[in-house]
Every structure is written in structure tokens, then in C-alpha cells.
Amino acid sequence: MDRSSNKGNLAVTAVALQDHLLHDLQLGHLSVADPCKIKARKKERKSKSLKRDATAIIDTGLRKTTEGPNMEDTEKEYVLDPTPPPLTLAQKLGLLPPPPLPLSSDEWERVKQRSLLQGDSIQPCPICKEEFELHPQVLLSCSHVFHRACLQAFEKFTNKKTCPLCRKNQYQTRVIHDGARLFRVKCATRIQAYWRGYIVRKWYRNLRKIIPPSDAKLRRKFFEEKFTEISHRILCSYNTNIDELFSEIDVCLAVNRSILQQLDERCGQIITEEDWEKIQAQAAHHEIYECSICLTPLSFHGDGRQAAIGTSSQRPRETVLLSCAHLFHNACLLALEEFSLGDNVPFHVCPLCRSCYQKKIVEC
């Protein structure tokens, strides 16, 4: 009896350990149970679920409002396996320790802090060797971080739940978004750096267009480009309309003709002796005693009196009377006409009133 009981205990222990190994390695294609019974149970469950889901639907003609999906926070962290796995036969018999309980929020926070200190979210994924960017990532209870898709592919390939780095079995996983946050900060920093660089380069180009460089060769090239730009702008703004040019010339000629005609009418009249006497009387009324050009006394003025001319040995200079009733030395007026306008100019203007004049020598 003792031998049979020992053999039975050994058989139960062996089966329990084998079942635990199968569950631990997650070998789904192997099982202690009969595969035929498993298939029959699956068919029964499927038929029961179909019967349970079959409900009569009555069309009332009323449109039903379908509520949209709940928009959850995309940055929310959550645990993928919140409930512990069921106990195996070996664990129920006390042959092996039970699986660890799910980590609390404080324990997950400590695991996350340890992962941040290690810089796992900054470094690439250890499986695919690529940046996390905006892809979903998972944090294991051993503080290692991977892409969620990479970890699922690794588990499917190895057919067991073991950490790819530390080989810890039956780890717990939590979805985090640290890599996505760091990637957004990195992208924002890069965009800001590019924008600042663009602004600085634009400012520097505008500055180079205004301030000439200190180097002689570059300075010469700078001014050559400036002169070329100015010449190009002048050529672009130049109007080559011949009709408008000729019309402007005609207008200018008409204005000049009108001015010359007015001068002819004003200065071309012949002044009679009576008019000269009136002009001379008007000049005497003004009491002009000196030449306004040389600022020396005149030899004669309109009332017939002799002005002070210095010593008697000096010959008095001729005095000229203008049609505007101003008196000058004849030599001074001739010198002024020759200096200012020349002998070929038909009209001269008075140095005082700027009007066209005719002149007459006043006899002593």
C-alpha cells in the first residue's frame, strides 16, 4: 500500500510539474488534457454563445441614436494584465511558489523612476533598435522598456513570456508614453532651432545688403553689385514712350515761345524822349546817389546836380539810366552783363528789380 501511494504521489507531482512547465512556457499546442475533449468543449461553448446572442429584433421604424465611442485620454497609462494568472496544479499543491501579486500604483511609479534613471525611453528599442517616437511602448516590471509590437512579436517568436534583456519570467507590463513625450519635445526643439536659424540667416542676408564688408575685395564687389542693381532699376523704370516724349517737348517749346513773346512785347517797345524824361524824373525822385554795383558815387543824377566825385583830376564815369528808373555806372553795368549773361544774349535783367530793361547814357 505504501509503495502504491508513493507511486501515486510521484505521478501527481510529475503531472503537476509538467503542467506548470507548459503554462510557464506558454506552449499552447501541448496540453495534459485530451485534445478531443478540448475540441468538443470549444464547440459546445461556441454553440451556447450563438444561442445566447440570438435575440429577436422588431423594426419599429424609429431611428435609434447610437452613442459614439468614449474618447479616452491618449496619454493615460494602464496595466495590460491587471489580474494575476491562475494557479497551476503545482502551485496549488505547494510544490512551487504562487505568482507575484499585481504591482500597485506606487510600485509602478518606483519601477518607472528606475527606468527613467536608466534612460530607457531616450535610447532606442532594444529589440528593433529604432526610436520609440509615437509608437506605443510598454514598461515591464523589471524596469525595461520596449515597443509594444516588438514585445508581442518577441513573445510570439519565443513562445514564452521572458524579458528579452534580463530573462525574467512572468513579468507584468504597463503601457507608458514617455517616449512619445520626449519625441514631441525633440521635434518642437528641432522646429524652433530651424526657425531661429532661418530668421538669423534672413537677417544676416539683409544686413549684408546694407552694410559693406571691411575686406577690400568684398567691398569692391559689394559696390559693384549695388551699382548694377541701381542701373537695372533705372533701366526698368525708364519710360521709352516716344509719343509722350515728343508731346512733352512740344509743351516745353510752347511755354518757351510764350515767354519769349512776353519779353518781346515788354522789352521790344521803342521808348521816346518824353518817356525817357519821365523815367529820369522818376529816378531823381528816388534820390539815387551811388551805383548799386560798385557802391561808389554816381557822376550825375536826374536833378542836374554834380555829385561828389573825388578830385577834379579824375574823369567822371558815365552814368546809365535804365527803363526801370535805376541808375548805374555804364562800365559796371557792361561788366555785369558780360559776366552774368554774355554779349550774345538778347535780353538782360536789372540787378535790382530783375526786369528787362532798355538803357540810355545820361549826359552830364
Automatic annotation (TrEMBL):
Q: Which InterPro entries match?
A: IQ_motif_EF-hand-BS, RNF32, Znf-RING_euk, Znf_RING, Znf_RING/FYVE/PHD
Task: Give one Pfam family.
Answer: zf-RING_UBOX
Query: What residues does the RING-type domain cover?
Result: 125-167, 291-354
Task: List the keywords (alphabetical).
Answer: Cytoplasm, Metal-binding, Repeat, Zinc, Zinc-finger
Enumerate the PROSITE patterns for this protein. Answer: IQ, ZF_RING_2
Q: What residue ranges are annotated as transmembrane? A: none
Q: Is Metal-binding there in the keyword field?
A: yes
Q: Which Gene Ontology cellular-component terms appear in the entry?
A: cytoplasm
Q: Does the keyword Metal-binding apply?
A: yes
List where in the cell it is found: Cytoplasm
For this UniProt entry, the molecular function terms from Gene Ontology, in alphabetical order, are:
zinc ion binding
User: What does the record give as the function of this protein?
Assistant: May play a role in sperm formation.
Q: What is this protein called?
A: RING finger protein 32
Tell me what organism the protein belongs to.
Answer: Mus caroli (Ryukyu mouse)
What gene is this protein a product of?
Rnf32
